[in-house]
Structure prediction request, 1406 residues.
Amino acid sequence: MFEEVLFKNRRPDRPATLDEYRQSGGYEALIEAVKQRTPDEVRQLVTDSGLRGRGGAGFPTGRKWGFIPADAGFPRYVVPNTDEMEPGTFKDRVLVNIDPHLVIEGIILSGYAVRAQTGFFFIRPSYELDAQLIEREVEVARQAGFLGNNILGSEFSFELVVHRSAGRYICGEATAQVNAIQGNRAHPMKDRHMASDGLWHRPTIVNNAETLACVPHILRQGAEWFKGLARTKTGAGTKLYCVSGKVNQPGCYELPIGTPLREIIEGSAGGMMPGSELKAVMPGGASTAYMPAKYYDVEMDFDPLKAVGHRLGTAAIMVFDQNTCLVAATLNLMEYFARESCGYCTPCREGLPYIRDLLWRIEAGEGREEFIPMLQQMARHMDSSYCAFAPGAAESVLGLLKYFLDEIREHISQKKCPFAEAYRPHRKLWYPAE
Amino acid sequence: MQAEIAVAEHPREQAINIMYAVQGHYGYLPDEGLLEAAELLDLTPLELEELATFYDFIYRRPVGKYVIHVCDGVVCWMFHENSVFEYLCQKLGVCAGEISADGLFTVLPTACIGFCDHAPAMLVNGRLYGPLTPLLIDEILEKLKTEYCDLVVCK
Amino acid sequence: MPKLIIDQRSIEVPAGTKVIAAAEKLGIMIPRFCYHPGLGSFGACRMCAVKFLEGPVKGIEMSCMEDARDGMVVSTTDPEAMEFRQYVIEWLMMHHPLDCPVCDEGGHCLLQDETVSGGHGRRRYLGHKRTYHDQYLGVFVQHEMNRCIHCWRCRNFYQGFAGYRDYGAMQIGNRMYFGRYEDGPLESPFAGNIIDLCPTGVLTDKPCRFVGRRWDFERAPSLCLHCSLGCNTTGSARYRQMWRQEGRFNEMVNGYFICDRGRYGFAYESHPERPRRARVAGLEVAWAEAIQTAAEKLSQIAATAGPAAVACLGSARSSLETQATLQRFCRALGWSEPRYFSVPSQERQVKAAIARLEAPLAVSLREIETADFVLVVGADPVNEAPMLALALRQAWLKGGAVAVLDPRPVFLPFEFEHLPLAPGDLEAALEALTAGAGGTDLLAGGSPWPLLPKIAALGRRLTQTQRPVIVCGTGIVRESTPGLAADLVLRLREAGLNAGLFYLLPGANAFGAGLLSPAGEGLTPLMEDLETGAVKALMVVENDPFWDYPDRGRLVRALDKLELLVALDYLPSPTVQRADIVFPTLTLFERNHSSFVNQEGRLQLAPPVHLGGMPMAQISPEKHPPRTFLSHIPGGEPRTPGEILAELAAAMPAPVTLPGDDLWDWLSRKNPVFANIVSLFESPPGARLIPEAVPAGTFSPAAAPAAAERPPDYLELLLVDLIFGTEELASYSKHIQPAEEPPRLRMHPADAAKLRLSSGDRVALRLLGGTLEVDLQVAENMAPGVLVLPRHRQLNWRLAPDYRVMVAYGDIVKVEA
Ligand SMILES: Cc1cc2nc3c(=O)[nH]c(=O)nc-3n(C[C@H](O)[C@H](O)[C@H](O)COP(=O)(O)O)c2cc1C
Ligand code: SF4
Ligand code: SF4
Ligand code: SF4
Ligand code: FES
Ligand code: FES
Prediction:
């Protein structure tokens, strides 16, 4: 049986305390780092470990840290990203609630590696209780000497500030997050290089919380060990898979990265719900395309998914069954994306509502054949928007068109949603009178 | 609050926190609160309004004591479509955004709240609830109506 | 210099040029909404998508975001790029109300153009259109939010370029709203630029609302005369009346933008009381009769009292053609040289400034944007030369620093250091800085002057810069201050810095007036000649001493002594009203080409916008053109002063023909700087009328009368400018008048405390000419020891005996309600 790494301090009812974390080797990596390793060594180790960002884009973490120019000035900032507003994704919430100090240590280490002075723990308002938890534990870590001035007697000083968001999906995007922290409207800034020109024009590194949680383990147990955790050749480490939808045991599971989809669903997630057959999954949150059942055996890692034209994203696996109308599901997603669009660029601001309108018409039985090429073209053109939000939003539409075109056509030809009947069981629960 | 801003290296960074604090005081962010907050932050009303209207959890109109954020994310949707929403509205006799007659509740749709493994889910007073059933909703509402509980507000 | 290929044509452009700009050089206009050369690239609208076929960038990308680089092969007509752009325009038009027939932008609307060029001809979107509430944004800008395409230009200009903070973007997604927090006038005096920038009809020109389509207007390049910067504009006229001014690009002067004073000050041109007919003794007479009468009377006085008894007063707002012709006219008739300033101190300041301006030193407004340090001495940019404030902001945005030495409560739309020094101290500061730049340790002498440490710190910063610019005003400073500013610049240059010099002058063509004024002490001040009776006839050409001259009582007494007052003007000024003979003249917008020299010596040409004549609206208020047909232009009698002077010369009992040779040849014989002029038609940024180097001793600034120091218990009264309400021409504009703030007297809290006054008090100022009542505003950010009073249209400030007056404490009293 695979031994959990990030979740090894999991307790049924509460987060691990500092002592419990330390008993499992917590903060050893930090102690060793500030005493015996240079920041560059820490970064090199992370680079060697093959760790790739867990926030969605999968960018190699060590390389990102290395983008800070050698002569860049101070202060520098790190931004642990716990916005987690990608629908279907809840791994960072679970992680923070299992082992807050693991995340905190990871953040401090990333700060050490890039010689930053301050971290902004960016967290969404739905996670207010988690924000309070982190605030408490940050204080505990400070009391223990892991945060503040001259950490553990070294030259390294680091502060961690919890920065509360007021809730917008786009705030998760790294450059928009920088704007958000500064108290500006959270529009992305694609013409600025965060590594030299981020928060208040200073070098800034944005990393996902899960990414950072891997760092203490890499430092303690080595790059090779971390690589060896993966089930794929090109992968490294474990991965937190969030499984939701029509499975028996939805939840967040830590597994070696590259675990095949089938194993995740049938093993950890307890298989499909009674009466449900797998129709499609979104492999990595709402910004990844539907992946039909034929890819049931794909290894859930960045490269294998890429090879079949899909994306690991946040590895939030949303499972759709045969009774779920994917036109309606996509419509739901478009409502979401259109509402959350930051409004900066035209394709996203106006194009997504346009797509929503077409899907709404199709779902309502007012669809026309000519909507299909329009959907196709518009979804494809989302690639030319300002940031990665709209291309992500378009993925569900493109997946729908690629794999479930017949389902769309059925809506059009029948002039209604062919799944209406299939909803009955749910509706009974909420509208017993019907 | 003034003290916090005074020591802050970048006062604007405090904008959201200040709006939350003012919102905690008034229950929502009324015009007068926005003007106070702007003054504290040395921002113009427009500059703060640019932020206030950007976000989901800053309420520029009055809301009930508890704002029920019903997840309309796709996972929850596949279990209930809009039923939770409709059920709540019907139960409380309100439309989205309105305040229930007892002044306690406002129902708002919101983005996936990260409780998808308990879909369908909702967020009330900082806590996540799910999987929702009509029964569970009734219980939650009843509890909120009858028991005192500390308000969880973003600080 | 990168070389790239766009649509099969190759072009080489300077590094840093965006592909969209490189294409423009080839004459390829890539569609755009958010990009504007004056604002830069934002990547928001996605309209400028092109396909990169080869090179460092591949695929569909935004041409406004990519720097031109070697090896790029770009197609603007690639089918995929065209399809994308077609969708962008379709998306933008989803909610557009298509109310083009009632939209003022219709006909010159970028959205209309791009809709056509984008190939979007048929509406496919079946949903409802979004609607918004509009806001009241003040008297200049009309708001129609439904038309908005969310290109961000207005906010990018308003907050980003100009630095004002009351207009922006609210809401999110496709609900985004561009406006103010609540209804109210836009606070920025540069707000009008968002009208020019808005690519559709959201923000339109309110005074020009529903007046016509672009093609209905007569349009021509023009100039702004409302301060000395000489910003370039495009004028629009219809029905014999100016309706609109827009910013016009001049790479050396204003860039793309202008201020609201320049945009809306033009309406003096259609002032209902503007003189349109020749008048003698208050009665309208035939033109020829007025010429005859004037010629006879003038020559009669010249004959009986001698030619010196006839004086001419030109102005700092007339064109150079008018100023020069007046001089030629006086010489031809043997009269004394014309003066151009009614206030002698102004003349001395202007001459002191331009005497020191030489080519290596002088910087243009545009060059200020690249300065790394700007020291502003005795100037209040927003109020005296508004676009200077924006140029300074651009320097600041690029990392430069700005320090202002000025007693007034100066506001600038960015962070700057303000040392509020009284006018006398400005000179001491300049002298100290000059000494410091020569390596002297300012603090070594142990001067008791409390501000010295600050000045010394400033001096150290100054010497650490590379490209500093000294800006020096001529409004409130002593007459020797401009010279001291030049000394500092020279000293900094000696120290190896590429220092520049930038003066502000009192008047759109004060430079020309200064060039033509006699050097040195010059003539006896006009007022003295009037008072002694040495001058018996005065011909005033486009000047109004009633506007400028501080001591109204003295002016009236002096004019009363005259036997004859002849006025040539287009303003219904008090001078025109009391003149015995009036000749109406043309504004720069009408029928004539006129040139003006801005404060850095740049000669610029303003062609006519229309032919002149009485505005249709004043003849036919029913708003439709009259149906009678005439062979002449009604109200078309006004002529240029040049024409009038020639007629007068010819009508003299001993007729004089003005020399027939070219005015410019004549000028260049007089002063070699005029030889620089090439055809202004071929030189869009204008031609500089300054010498390569000032020959030593050629111009010696008039020695300033020693500045009397302020006695204790006195405050120095400073008469200052405001953006609206103090500038002569704009004050006659009905568009500007409603934007004027009520005039207020300002003083430092320390002085207010001594006088037991506070903000909001009504204060009576006892001045030599009488008592002036005005509301008080106490301002922290100004120098103690001074009173700041605007020379406001609505204020009888001319009770002050001079531009520099000391007011005793006892003469400042609170008026009890
Ligand atoms: C629209 C959008 C939303 C995003 N939301 C999140 C988020 O909630 N959390 C996160 O960690 N990364 C998010 N990202 C990815 C971030 O931009 C960034 O790549 C990531 O935080 C970097 O961390 P990593 O390298 O550790 O993955 C989002 C990206 C986009 C385009
Ligand atoms: S794609 Fe454009 S509108 Fe959408 S979130 Fe990104 S920048 Fe904003
Ligand atoms: S108001 Fe005009 S300039 Fe401003 S965003 Fe809308 S269309 Fe663009
Ligand atoms: S800055 Fe001066 S010249 Fe320029 S537009 Fe304004 S008033 Fe006219
Ligand atoms: S979809 Fe509802 S909680 Fe995630
Ligand atoms: S002009 Fe290039 S994106 Fe708007």
About this structure: The interface with chain A takes residues 41, 43-47, 49, 60-62, 65, 83-84, 87-88, 91-92, 94-95, 124-127, 149-150, 152, 169, 171-176 of chain C (CB under 8 Å). Confidence is low (pLDDT under 50) at residues 698-705 of chain C. The radius of gyration of chain C is 28 Å. Residues 349-510 of chain C form a domain with the Dimethylsulfoxide Reductase; domain 2 fold (CATH 3.40.228.10).
